[in-house]
Amino acid sequence: VQRLRRLLSLRSARQSEGAFVVEGAKVLSEALAAGVAVESVFAPAGTSDPVLDAAHGAGARLFELSPGVLERVAGTSTPQPLLAVVPAVDVPLERVRGASFVLVLVDVRDPGNAGTVLRSAEAAGAGAVICCEGSVDAFNPKTVRASAGSLFHVPLVVGCDALQVLDQIGQWGVRRLATAARLGTPHTSVDLRSPFAFVLGNEAHGLPPHVAEVVDEVVTIPLAGRSESLNVGMAAAVLCFEAARQRAAAPDEARPRRGGSPG
Amino acid sequence: VQRLRRLLSLRSARQSEGAFVVEGAKVLSEALAAGVAVESVFAPAGTSDPVLDAAHGAGARLFELSPGVLERVAGTSTPQPLLAVVPAVDVPLERVRGASFVLVLVDVRDPGNAGTVLRSAEAAGAGAVICCEGSVDAFNPKTVRASAGSLFHVPLVVGCDALQVLDQIGQWGVRRLATAARLGTPHTSVDLRSPFAFVLGNEAHGLPPHVAEVVDEVVTIPLAGRSESLNVGMAAAVLCFEAARQRAAAPDEARPRRGGSPG
């Protein structure tokens, strides 16, 4: 239980143990469906849920928690009825070579936004999400919650330096498209059928100048009214589904498909 | 101060007084820019911000708060440095006649999602947002915060019965498009240039059956991977910007424009 609390609250604990905590039966079943080797599951005594049997069958150890312990550990007023410890699911950068629809998070700080980005990425058929140093931890409990299990289904790279990532994917032939609140090419006028990466920056400050310098093009979502910007989560949803639209309209090119490999 | 607390926490107080609270200089300046008759502004003694002068010049009464009062009233750990009481900004349904890009919230319960919907609506150039009975209060502090001031710039209708709204806008020639997680026409295949309304339901349960019965068509965002649905805020962003895309691509039709009237 001490360990659960550490893994929930400390990024350093998650990094040194190479593990993180997922909350709730739904996200746990997503982890199992993705073939993740769930390490242990914690639930109040008497919990009966098929996902517990599935986790046990897949080799996870089950632990019963006394009444009230879950509430104290989870630190939210409406805790999910079970917690599980799972190994970090990130892959090395080299493993997403060949992905033709990529998101790079350079300086995204809000854990909820980062989770929403993962959810949009999976739902729109992205082949990789790369969470660079400086961005929020992809295994933060709020990010895991907001991702609704998507982080188990999109190849995820974490902890790399942004410049090295952009350099590497550029060498692979992936166009690096910075996203900015203004002055870029409208997102609907950019060709998103050939390999590209959306490079997302900090909501308040955008991309750091040394990163903005090395992208291939700047993309902007044109806004009506007095709007100045969308939040990063909303912007990622709009951008990802514009890419999905263009790819669906061009059946000969790579396009999102159910259960596909990196697209 | 008692009144501030009531207006922040009680929907009934907001309704009976016809007023609500906005937090922060940014949203207050949006209210002033929209010509809203700000009633009063509360800030810690010694606050100096041009928006205070602007509010005063526009006829608002200014009140100084003792140290610590704002934190207690706002009930958040990171309160905005000022609060203002403003009159409800909703308009009667009849006033949005002629809007050709409408959002109808039938049963949206999460205040953050509702605020995101307002933000997407303004940013994509919608002409009206209609928040029916059963949905969260559009003047809930969390909704106001998530809307980032958008609720002052999009004509907003609140409190009507969903069936009456759908009946009325249908008579005006607005196509009513239910949004559903599956089985509808792909959103990119639906003509969004002629007058339409997206009808958004509850995230968990969708639209109530008696409402789903009276729509003209069902629209779905096709999802890749194992994704089951997007949250209402993300879905609204994707849908609204698909409408903006189609309208921008058809210059002879109504399309979003800066500072435009109901579009």
Can you give a write-up of this model?
2 copies of one chain form a homodimer. Chain A has 263 residues and is α/β, with parallel strands linked by helices. Helix content of chain A is 34%, strand content 18%. Chain A has helices at residues 2-9, 11-17, 25-33, 50-57, 69-74, 111-124, 141-147, 162-171, 209-212, 232-248; strands at 19-23, 40-44, 61-65, 83-87, 101-105, 128-131, 156-158, 175-179, 185-186, 196-200, 217-220. The first copy, chain A, has a 7-stranded parallel β-sheet with strand order 7-6-5-10-8-11-9. In chain A, strands 1-4-2-3 form a 4-stranded mixed β-sheet, with helices on both faces. The longest helix of chain A is centred in the C-terminal third of the chain and has 17 residues, at 232-248. The model of chain A is unreliable at 252-263 (pLDDT under 50). At the A-B interface, helix 6 and helix 10 of A face helix 6 and helix 10 of B.
Features:
10 helices; four-stranded mixed sheet; homodimer; 18% strand; elongated; seven-stranded parallel sheet; 263 residues; alpha/beta; 11 strands; disordered C terminus
Helix-strand blueprint:
The structure is a homodimer of 263-residue chains.
Chain A: H1 2-9, H2 11-17, E1 19-23, H3 25-33, E2 40-44, H4 50-57, E3 61-65, H5 69-74, E4 83-87, E5 101-105, H6 111-124, E6 128-131, H7 141-147, E7 156-158, H8 162-171, E8 175-179, E9 185-186, E10 196-200, H9 209-212, E11 217-220, H10 232-248
Parallel strand pairs in A: 2-3, 5-6, 5-10, 6-7, 8-10, 8-11, 9-11
Antiparallel strand pairs in A: 1-4, 2-4
Helix pairs in contact in A: 1-2, 3-4, 6-7, 6-10
